[in-house]
Amino acid sequence: MKEQVRSKSMLGHSFNKNNSLLATPKSNEKKLFVYLTCLFIITWYLQLGLRVGILGAVRFEFLLGAFLSLSAIVKLLNDRNSTPIQGPIILFFAVLAFYTLFSYDRSQSWETFFNRVVKFSMLAAFLAAFIRTEWALKMVIAAFLLAMLKMGQEGFMGWITGGMVWENQGIPRLHGVTGLYRHPNSYSGMAVGCLPFIYYLYPISNWWQKLLLIALLVCALIIIVFTGSRTGYVATILLGIYFWRERLKVNKLKYLVLGITISITAYILLPEAYTNRLHSIITLEEAEGSSSETRIQILKDSVNVFLSKPWGVGVSAFPSVRIEMFGRYQDTHNLYLELLTNMSVFGVISFFIFIRTIIRENKNIISRTDKIFVKAIAQAVIAFIYARLFLGLFGMDTYEIYWWFSAGLTMAMYRITYSTHQERFPSKTSRFRRATQIL
């Protein structure tokens, strides 16, 4: 009897250890590269080079990124086992490279391709190369959420003190501290991107992790509301519907009533200036300025540019072509029009093959893994992708880092799942060897 009790306690201890955020890594884990990847994520999101003078002076982010890039490329080239995302990445990358070479504004296209596509895609390489265990995945997610929490805290303090709030388009709008998220729309998008990770990690977290996630949720909601970003409002509503739809499958009546109650309460509590801002999505009436009219004009110009140049104008070349055709410079302010005008239907198709593969593989991981943390992150990545697609209705996100972050996490989780279920994920090499043995 004592042995049974001892056995059960050991199993319980093992379960808690494996699911703790700070569970120790396996002995063969290359911890240095995991820590450096986490450091890069924090450095990039918080823009430490601009915050800490000496880091900017020595170009710390560049040196760290270059070292990790070379190390990741060497490691990935030596890997025999590929992932299902590799093909779609190569296809999307090839289309981007083609439309950089054949562009109406080659200098602008090259700048975007190198500084955004190439550099941002390296994050996917870091995650694919160095994140091979559940412990490493937990470290990366912890680093990401820590960076989000810091930016959330800055937004909270900026709102409380009023130091980061000033009038824009007729209402007081909260702005970010760093240049990366200074614009209210970008800052709101950052906050919306936190919601999937909060939603799926909360149920599996311990008490202190729950407190941190609640703090991040409060900060994220304050940022979404007080940035006054209609882009953020639309994305939050659509993401909320996505979460709500999932809960309806569990208990339709309960979550139907709960969803309606939360929606009504949130609307009532929304300050009047921001309620009017929400209404302006439909009415197009604004307190100040003509942002809605400008967006409609951009929409018309985008359609005309596509009709006149249906094969695409090149990566980030739309503003140059637009000013040449219409004397107006602003970009598309829409992910889908950006894809269509920049890279024609080839860009749209290659992008959505890339995105569809990420979503599909995460669904496969959810159905196959027995690790609750991996399953939660796979669910969060799918919702994060949808959140970015929702934000793309009013934002230009084609060349942003979010897709590469999602792809990298997916490849990491694929390899983690593969390492424990090798028979389910045979490599191309093993499939070839098996076929030759049969023959």
TrEMBL record:
Arranged from A to Z, the UniProt key words for this protein are: Membrane, Transmembrane, Transmembrane helix
What stretches pass through the bilayer? 32-54, 85-102, 122-147, 187-205, 211-244, 253-270, 335-355, 376-395, 401-418
Protein species of origin: Marinobacter salarius
Q: Name one Pfam family in it.
A: Wzy_C
**Keyword Transmembrane helix: yes or no?**
yes
What InterPro entries is this protein classified in? O-antigen_ligase-rel_domated, WaaL-like
Q: Which residues form the O-antigen ligase-related domain?
A: 216-352
Q: What is this protein called?
A: Polymerase
Q: Where in the cell is it found?
A: Membrane
User: What topology in the membrane does the UniProt record assign?
Assistant: Multi-pass membrane protein
Q: Which residues form a coiled coil?
A: none
Give the CC-aspect GO terms: membrane
